[in-house]
Structure formats: structure tokens, C-alpha cells
Specification:
Length: about 475
């Protein structure tokens, strides 16, 4: 079956899917060009026993069958519409195939637990993506194997890993969110202990992989080897899902997972070698600078009895991201959220003392050009001895107090620079900025931050901010 036929089937199947199930089952099917690219990443190509879990209409298995000498292929799929196509597509293959019309997670947990079923030499997958709740059957099933994971796609990958033979190769397309963030740490740990990462492919524009379905997710293609010796990692990049030009760069594994990183973040360095000067900006951990960062301590719904729409005697300011706009800081502001909180024992424990703070939004809009957006807040802005920072912020502080002004200004310039934004994208694929991400980053030295701070003025444009970093870098030469 050729590419056009498979893609036509994919479109036909899509029109028949139950729209309500589409989200629940994470039904975004792989365009054949991606399937083909993925299949071509397999290195060993003979005697293949293939796994395709959440197989949809079977595009990935079909693509793999063109590259591999298959001796057996097994596919898991739940949706009856998909199953009808999959059945026909598997029947057309000239090998032994087995179609499991079952839940891959529940079935795999049994197979692994009781050590039954096939062990695979190859896996090719585009699993469903969907959060799994703490009390869901999937979560409890995974826990039976000691697997703690909050998304279907990481559960699928973990269970596939556990059903591979040693030396087995896995090629998978998944969102990039597992690379960082505390929730995915147990999964990263399992993946890195059981497999080597051989290749990571990224798409230059993030909405390219599943553009037919308007998926705005940033996806990566991973190639792993079960029990593989970890050597250097190939980074690969294409503009889009046409793969007209594919750039490759081989990097040492330490650039992907930093030695001794307690969070075991998976970083995806840019395709260009970092220049020596840029490196000067990323040398010191926050601890070395004597600075800390935390999530904004005020969780507003817990303090609802103490909300005050406007500042009143006995209240303190409660600062939200909406208080900052392109026009600058505006507080108090008409909004459904409060501007202030009445002081009480319950409120006081979440407040910080008057001072100069740098605050970074935790959630940026998907369309926003920058991931990290930082602001300075000073005592003059709010005129209060105590202040509440709402939970949608990350707050830079020194032992719960403010920062010296020049350091705060330097940090704000640095955090809002394009150099930093590019660096941040190395280890973060999603639009959320967690305090852990900021804690794991490297920063310029204190003198360099102070120098940047000395050039700060209100209302700097992006070009002016980047210019300040260029000046600073030139001085280093
Ligand atoms: C992202 S789609 C990908 C389909 C196919 N692999 C492809 O690349 O076109 C994920 C598929 O997994 C199926 N699925 C969702 N949850 C499942 C589960 N628990 N067990 C088996 N299949 C599942 C969905 O019906 C859907 O067809």
C-alpha cells in the first residue's frame, strides 16, 4: 500500500471517529511521511518482532513493514472504527500478525506482572496523549508495577520498554513535556535506567507534526534502545513534517542529561554549537548567587474569606500576573480577582516583606513569543510593608526578603533576553515555567548581573535588552 492510500484511509477513518472519543482516546493519527521517517530510524532490520500500541489504522506498522524484515507484528487498539481499518491493513501484511482489541495499559500490566506474552525487538508508536487522574484505573494498574505516571503517553512508553528484548529498538513520537517537570521524574528515571537515548528529532515549528488536527503541542521523535550502552546522542531537526531537509548534530550525552542533575531533566540543545561567550551567561547556580526562587505562596481560593476587591485599612496587596500589561504595572485594577487581602493569621503566613522582587509568570500564552517573562516589583509600586504573590508567579527572593535593586534589575534584563529564552527552550518544551526549572538553570555571575542591572531602565524593548547582553558579551572578549 502506498503513501497516498494510507493517508487517504487516515482521512477517511478520521471522519468516522466519534468526536467525543477523540479527546478521551487521544486520537491524532500520524501522517505517513512521519511514519516513514520514524521507520527509517531502525538500525537492526531483520528478524523483527514488532509492537505498535494505540495503533490507530496501523500507519506506523505499515511504514515499519517497508523497512523491517518482520517475523511477527502485534498491535493494540481499542476504538472499533480504528480496529476495522487496522484489521484490513494488518491482513495485507505477509507476516504473522496479532490484533489485540484491548486496553494496552491494562493488558501490558498483566503480561509484565505474570511474565507472559511476546517480548519485542522493535516498537513503533504514536501513543494517545491524555492526563491520567490520580484515581484512574490506568494509574492504579501502573502502580501495580511500581510505575508512577500521569499521562497515557508515558504509561504506554514505559510499558513498551518493559516488554522489549535487550537490544530492542523503540521509535516513538510524543509530546516534549516529559523532558522536564517534577511529575515526569519517575518516568524519566525508568527510561534512562532501562534504555539508551540514541536520537531525538525535533520540528522547527512546533505545530507541524499533527497540523491536520491543529495540535499545538511540541512533539519529539525519540529513538531508544533497551539495555543500550549510552553513547553520544544524535539531534535531528526538520522544518516540518515533510522532512525536506534534516539537520543532524551529534552531542555528548552530558549535554542532554547533566551529570548529577537531581531532576534528570532531558535537555535538547540547539542545533548550533553554543558560542563561548554565550556560555559565560550560564555559569552559576542560583544558590551560588545567594538567591532563591519559589512559587507564589498565595493560593487565592484557600484565602477567599479574606479577599478584598480594593485596598482598605488592614489589607495588603495581592499581586497577580494580570496586574502587569504591556503598558506597565497597574494595581489596583478592576478584575474578578481581589487586589488585596485582609490580614489574619491565615493570610500572614503566605506574605513576603516589603522589598524589590523579580517575578516570572508560570504560564505564558501558547502564542506568546517568549517562554520566560519577568517583571520587577518595588516598594514604590505598592506602598505596603507586606505583599502577597499569587500562585501564578515564580518569585525570586533572598530568604523571603527582596533583592538589591541592581541585582533585581540585572536578573530581569537577563531573564527577558532572547539568549535566555533560547537556553530555556533547551530543557523545556512546554509553556509552563516552574520554580524547579528556574532553580535548575544557570545564570551569569553577580558582577555581570549587576552590570546588566546598571543599564536597566523602565520600558526597554526586546532589541534594547538583547543589545545590553551583546555589550556585556563583547566586554568579555
Ligand atoms: C495518537 S493516536 C495514534 C494512532 C496511530 N498510532 C497513528 O500513529 O496514527 C492513539 C491511538 O491509541 C488508541 N488508544 C487510546 N487509548 C488506548 C488504550 N488504552 N489501549 C489501546 N489503544 C488506545 C486510540 O484509539 C488511537 O487510535
Amino acid at each position: 500500500m502506498d503513501e497516498a492510500v494510507i493517508d487517504a484511509l487516515r482521512h477517511e477513518a478520521k471522519t468516522k471517529l466519534d468526536p467525543k472519543q477523540k479527546g478521551a482516546l487521544g486520537q491524532f493519527m500520524t501522517p505517513f511521511r512521519i511514519a516513514e521517517f520514524m521507520a527509517n530510524l531502525f538500525v537492526t532490520r531483520t528478524n523483527a518482532v514488532l509492537l505498535d500500541a494505540g495503533a490507530g489504522i496501523g500507519s506506523l506498522t505499515l511504514a515499519a513493514s517497508k523497512v523491517l524484515k518482520l517475523s511477527r507484528a502485534e498491535a493494540w487498539e481499542l476504538d472499533p472504527v480504528m480496529v476495522s481499518y487496522l484489521q484490513r491493513n494488518l491482513a495485507g501484511l505477509d507476516v504473522v500478525t496479532e490484533l489485540h482489541k484491548k486496553d494496552f495499559i491494562l493488558d501490558s500490566v498483566d503480561r509484565i506482572q505474570f511474565d507472559v506474552g511476546t517480548r519485542f525487538t522493535h516498537a513503533i508508536m504514536n501513543p494517545p496523549y491524555k492526563k491520567i487522574g490520580a484515581n484512574s484505573i490506568h494509574r492504579s494498574a501502573c502502580r501495580q508495577l511500581g510505575l508512577e505516571t500521569g499521562n497515557l503517553y508515558t504509561a504506554f512508553l514505559a510499558l513498551a520498554i518493559l516488554q522489549m528484548k535487550l537490544g530492542g529498538e523503540i521509535v516513538i513520537i510524543i509530546p516534549r513535556s516529559f523532558c522536564n517537570g517534577p511529575y515526569y521524574k519517575p518516568f524519566r528515571s525508568l527510561m534512562l535506567t532501562k534504555c539508551s537515548i540514541d536520537l531525538i528529532h525535533i520540528f522547527e515549528s512546533r505545530n507541524q507534526a499533527f497540523k491536520d488536527d491543529e495540535v499545538l503541542q511540541e512533539n519529539v521523535i525519540l529513538k531508544l534502545t533497551r539495555g543500550g550502552a549510552q553513547g553520544s546522542v544524535t539531534l535531528s531537526l526538520s522544518q516540518d513534517a515533510e522532512f525536506d531537509v534534516v539537520h543532524r548534530r551529534v552531542v555528548p550525552f552530558e549535554l542532554i542529561v547533566e551529570t548529577g542533575d537531581p531532576e534528570i531533566f532531558i535537555r535538547i540543545p540547539s542545533m548550533a554549537e553554543p558560542g563561548p561567550v554565550t556560555g559565560e551567561f550560564f555559569k552559576y547556580g542560583l544558590k551560588e548567587l545567594g538567591v532563591e526562587v519559589c512559587t507564589g505562596p498565595v493560593v487565592d481560593f484557600r484565602l477567599k474569606p479574606w479577599w478584598s476587591q480594593d485596598p482598605q485599612p488592614g489589607t495588603v496587596p495581592c499581586i497577580y500576573p494580570h496586574h502587569f500589561t504591556a503598558a506597565g504595572f497597574e494595581w489596583p485594577k478592576a478584575h474578578k480577582k481581589p487586589n488585596s487581602l485582609y490580614r489574619s493569621n491565615e493570610v500572614d503566613k503566605w506574605l513576603m516583606r516589603e522589598g524589590v522582587y523579580v517575578v516570572v509568570r508560570r504560564f505564558s500564552a501558547k502564542e506568546e513569543r517568549r517562554r520566560v517573562v519577568a517583571y520587577i516589583i518595588t516598594p514604590q509600586d505598592i506602598n505596603s510593608q507586606l505583599v502577597g504573590f499569587e500562585n501564578h508567579w515564580n518569585v525570586f527572593h533572598i530568604q523571603k526578603n527582596g533583592l538589591p535593586m541592581d541585582l533585581a534589575r540585572g536578573l530581569a534584563v537577563f531573564l527577558n533576553s532572547t539568549v535566555l529564552d533560547n537556553y530555556f527552550r533547551i530543557f523545556s518544551g512546554h509553556t509552563q515555567v516552574n520554580a524547579t526549572d528556574l532553580r535548575n538553570m544557570k545564570f551569569p555571575s553577580l558582577p555581570m548581573l549587576r552590570e546588566l542591572g546598571s543599564k536597566y531602565r523602565h520600558g526597554l524593548t526586546q532589541e534594547e535588552i538583547d543589545g545590553l547582553l551583546d555589550q556585556c558579551a563583547n566586554k568579555q572578549n
